[in-house]
Amino acid sequence: MTIKDLVKISTTSLIRNGVRSWLTVLGVIIGVASVIAMQAIGNGSDESIKKEVRSMGVNVIMIFPGTFRMGGVAQSAGSMSVLEVEDAEKIKETVKTVVAVSPIVQSGQQIVYQTNNWRSNVTGIWADYFTIKAYKVSSGRLLTEREANGMSKNCLIGKTVYKKLFPAGSNPIGETIRVGTVPMKIVGILEAKGSGTFGQDQDDIILAPLKTVQKRLLATTFIQQIQVSAKSEAKMTQAMADIRAYMLSKPNIISSDGEERFSIRSQSELSSMLGSISKVMILLLSSIAAISLLVGGIGIMNIMLVSVTERTREIGLRMALGATDRDVKIQFLAESIMLSVWGGILGIIFGYLISLLAGSILNWPVTVSSSSILLAFTFSAVVGIFFGYYPAKKASELDPIEALRYE
């Protein structure tokens, strides 16, 4: 039997039972489409996380007071007094593996402009902060080094703050807003960064000189954290080690219970942690989708077994006319493979369309990779062979005489 004859006979048989064939193929379509869609959404999630982490800055290292634990920074007694501006100065001066250093203080304040008001987060910084966080302005300018490192009352606002205080869209550059009780002049609007990794609005922010926020809003000499940008990603580990060595040289840096009163975390650690979570999610979603494909394979086996029973006399007649056991086995196996292959092809199309639709509805990036398409199609073909083999084998083992007598 030639391949052409085999395809013709298999196609004729499947068309003859069209509704049943399509219902069987539907199980494979759902399985393949699910695999592709879940992979696409998962890959998009991974890429989105990486993009958000990159938006947080370049080779960022963060130094916190207290012991870092899941859920935030655990502050022990007196830990807030651990970090000082002098520490940032010393790190910038002595640690040769860093290119930018900025101490940071933050304060939630009510922001007022004429009749509009909004509560936002005011962050006190040095000029290096713009390099560390890769901030740019959409209009206006950044703070100069003299302004940021001095007691200037100039500030920059994020897009969210701009929309809340200037709903009419007027130009805010040069306008004075009241931050808490302190009047500040807007010199620039920061480019939008969108939502952060944990859902926070990165544009709901005001950047002002460190000393201004320290003295006028918080009335403190201490800082809440120090952010550092390493020279390169390859220098991150060495930079963290150098910073740790400096911190450990400070007096009273080890608590009475032997714990360090500071924590150092890097952007790469955060990226690695979130990447691991994303990979687990992709694996979980793909596993669930693969179960759907497995169920589709069971449907193929079920329908082929029914087909063998219904076509017992036909099988007997073919054998009586000279068809071998191998011919019968190949015929039924070919029908099973055709069901799964067509299901695979249609599943790929529907999976791609579902991915695009999901990305549009959820406003979520999706990435349909060629590897996921190849995996899904290969798996569907394997399913057809695996679940079609037993019915094909059963058909080939029928006794021709008994098959001819079958009613």
Q: What is the topology?
A:
Elements: H1 3-16, H2 18-55, E1 60-65, E2 67-69, E3 72-74, H3 85-94, E4 98-113, E5 116-125, H4 128-132, E6 137-140, H5 145-148, E7 154-157, H6 159-165, E8 176-179, E9 182-190, E10 205-209, H7 210-218, E11 225-230, H8 236-248, E12 262-266, H9 267-310, H10 312-320, H11 325-362, H12 370-396, H13 400-405
Parallel strand pairs: 5-10, 7-9
Antiparallel strand pairs: 1-11, 1-12, 2-3, 4-5, 4-8, 4-11, 6-9, 7-10, 8-9
Helix pairs in contact: 1-11, 2-9, 2-11, 2-12, 9-11, 9-12, 11-12
Report on this model:
By secondary structure, this protein is α+β, with helices and mostly antiparallel strands. The protein is built from 13 helices and 12 strands. The protein has 2 domains: 3-52 and 273-405, no CATH class; 83-252, no CATH class. It has helices at 3-16, 18-55, 85-94, 128-132, 145-148, 159-165, 210-218, 236-248, 267-310, 312-320, 325-362, 370-396, 400-405, and strands at residues 60-65, 67-69, 72-74, 98-113, 116-125, 137-140, 154-157, 176-179, 182-190, 205-209, 225-230, 262-266. α1 (3-16) crosses α11 (325-362) and α9 packs parallel to α12.
What's this entry about, in short?
The protein is of the alpha+beta class and 407 residues long.
Throw out a few tags for this protein.
2 domains, 407 residues
